[in-house]
Each structure stands twice: as structure tokens, then as C-alpha cells.
Amino acid sequence: MTSVDPRRAAAAFCRDGASCPLSPLGCGNINDTFLVESAVGPFVLQRINCRVFPQPLRVINNFAKITGHLNGRRCQGDKEFCTALPVPTLAGVLFFLDAEGEYWRGQTYLAHATCHTLTNPGQALQIGRALASFHVLVADLEVQCLEDPLPDFHNLPRYLQEFDQLRARSQKGRDAACHYCFAAIDHDRQGATALEAAKDAGLLSIQAIHGDPKIDNFLFDDQGLARGMLDLDTVGAGIVHYDLGDCLRSCCNRAGESGADGLEVSFDMEICRALLAGYFSLPQPLPSTGQQAYIFEAILAITFELGVRFCTDHLRGNTYFKVRRDGDNLLRAVHQFRLVEDIMRKEDAIRRLVGQVAAGSYVS
Predict the structure, then answer these.
(1) Is 140 exposed, middle or buried (CB count within 10 Å of its CB: 0-12, 13-18, 19+)?
(2) Vertex 342 angle, CA 121 and 161, to 5°
(3) Of 143, 139, 142, which is closest to residue 283 (Cα–Cα)?
């Protein structure tokens, strides 16, 4: 993290920023986020991690474009979809550049609740509907107007190439956990690339996607209804399968990425059923019928991809994902590859379930 006091950055957005209460917000793995309680109202202050987002202005500009588009759709009478909005600096620009060259941006604070694990299928149904709403709302957004915030973000072959290079020269990798991850990557790499091959072959449609629809990026109101999404940093051109796969990976493993005490890493079929039912409940379900066959490949690919990324970051010295201690990323990788194993065991059941839900044979 930068050595610049976040209050100095807050002062660029509000006149009492140097003295008003400021506290860490959320538990994201990438950026540093704070809640600023200024005299004119609370807002979110965030330092963009330049090691992860080497061109922060792309993130900042995309955020303004996507939120502007969503606001436009609301003005046209579409169902309200809640997301944070940009908060400009006192100078009227979208970011503050500190003395160390770090970019800070402001966003409106949304008091809705988030969750890290699901406790019932009803929450999954709500998340599925919210994700589908987002996909429908941005389906007509010209992807050419969005800059790529993370080139090759879901390029599994590139992640595998980097992993292979690091494994060959790393001094790590001699313990049982590393051997398990290395074996899992070698065993599953061919099957996990099927989604990318289908995309490259032009079989899957490209549109604007969220890019990181994990469970804690959904907003719930006090009635338990999912009202919108957070963290639009990774919005860009892609296939909705990336979002569906990542959302199902995140929601259907109740143990979470780091593993919860007493919970086994597994893929929860009831949560999967409910989430897909919510997703396909909208009048304009996406993806199209001809593309639904790749939903299983999406779940497998994104889960495997994240395991590769965690393992690779462990080998490179934890430069991407935040950790409390060395070994955290390796543990996360182990949990992802255990989830991959369970997903593969349930392949036939998942494929049948996707077909049933998409055909409307499941009623919430």
C-alpha cells in the first residue's frame, strides 16, 4: 500500500476530508477501500492497485461509462439496478493523483448489505436474477467504447504459460500442498480450456460483462432482495459464461475461497439450481439456447483458472492477491482445485440441471 495518508486523498474529494472519520471498508483482495464520513455525507474512497491495474485511467473511465449507461437505461423505464456512481473531486475530475503517482477515486456509498457465504437457496435465486438483470441492461452497450482494464483477464492459456515458467524456476513447490496443486493443473488443463476454444471459434457471443461477479459483489436490501452489484472495475468485453461460471463457483462453494471452519469444499447443487433459476427467470434469458451447453465448461474453466492464478501468485511471491502471510494463496489454490474435483464428479448432474432449469422445468 502507498505511504500516502488516505486522508490526504479524501481532502481532494471533500473539504473536511483531512479530519473526518475514515475507516477500512470491505475485504477485497486487490484495492484499498475506505469509508469516508464527511459532513456532506458518506462516500467510498479507493486507491486503485497499479500493480494489478497498470492503466488505472481505464478503470476510472470505464466506470463512468458503464454507470452512465445504466443510468440511461433507468431513465428509459427499465427495472432499477443499483450500483455506485462516481464522486468527482472538488476540482471536478474523476480521480486524485497523489505524490507517489497513485490513483484514488470516489464513489457513492451504498448502505445495502453484502454477504460472503449463502445460507439458503433464496439468496442464490436473487443473485441469479441480479446477474441476469445486469447482462440484459448492458447487452446494448457498444463494447468498443470500453477500454480493456485487464488485458487477457480470462485468458487461461496465458495463465498456464506463466505458471509453467514460474514452476520451472521457483524455489517453492516442494511441500505436499504445492505437489497437489501442480498435479491438479497437469491433470485438468486440457479439459479446462474447452470454453476458451469455443470462444475463439466464434461459438459464444461477445458483449459487456461484469468480470468479477463473486458473491460479495451483490447488494441486498433489508428485505433480502438483491438490488444491484458492486465493483465494476473489471467490466469489459467478454462472454457471459465468464460471469456465470465465476458466480456459480463463488456461490456454490459455501466454504469460500479460503475455506470456512467445519465446511467441506464442495459444489452445492441446490444453490446452483436456485441461482440458474433466477438467472433464466427474466424475459430475455442469456445466453441463447445454443450457448447454454457451455455453462458446465464455464464453471469448470473459471474455477480451474482461479486455482492456477492463486498458485501462480504464490510462486511469484504474492504480488497480485492480498495475503496476511505467505502460504495464503497456496491454501486458496488447494481449495479451488478441490472444488474442481467435485465439479468434475458432478458433471452429468450439472449438465442435466442446466438443461432442466433453462427449459423452465424448475419453479422457485
Answers:
(1) exposed
(2) 115
(3) 139
Cα angle value 313/318/320 (rounded, 5°)? 75
Contact between residue 321 and residue 327 where contact means Cβ atoms under 8 Å apart: no
206-252 pLDDT per residue, tens? 999 999 999 889 998 888 888 899 889 889 999 999 999 999 999 99
CB atoms near residue 281 (< 10 Å)? 17
Query: Residue 3: pLDDT above 70?
Result: no
Determine contact, residues 87/43, Cβ cutoff 8 Å.
Answer: yes
CATH superfamily placement of domain 121-358: Aminoglycoside phosphotransferase (APH), C-terminal lobe (3.90.1200.10)
10 in Cβ contact with 4 (< 8 Å): no
Distance CA 129, CA 84 (A): 19
| CATH architecture of residue range(s) 6-108 | 2-Layer Sandwich (3.30)
Instruction: Look up the pTM and report it.
Output: 0.89
Residue 287: asked if its preceding bond is cis (omega within 30°), the reply is: yes
Q: What is the pLDDT of residue 284?
A: 66
User: For residue range 104-152, what is the model confidence (pLDDT) as tens digits?
Assistant: 999 999 887 777 778 889 999 999 999 999 999 999 999 999 998 888 8
The CATH 3.90.1200.10 domain(s) of the chain lie at 121-358
Q: Is the four-CA dihedral 296, 305, 147, 243 of positive or negative sign? A: positive
Integer Cα distance of 310 and 127 in angstroms: 25
User: What is the rounded distance in angstroms from the CA atom of residue 30 to the CA atom of residue 205?
Assistant: 29
Secondary structure (H, E, C), 231-272: CCCCCEEECHHHHHHHHHHHHHCCCCCCCCCCCCCCCCHHHH
- List, by residue range, all CATH 3.30.200 domains of the chain: 6-108
pLDDT above 90 (res 335): yes
More confident residue, 359 or 306: 306
User: What is the band of 364 on the pLDDT scale with cuts at 50, 70, 90?
Assistant: very low
Write down the residue that cell numbers 501442480 correspond to. Answer: 182
Place of cell 460472503: 116
Residue with cell 423505464: 77
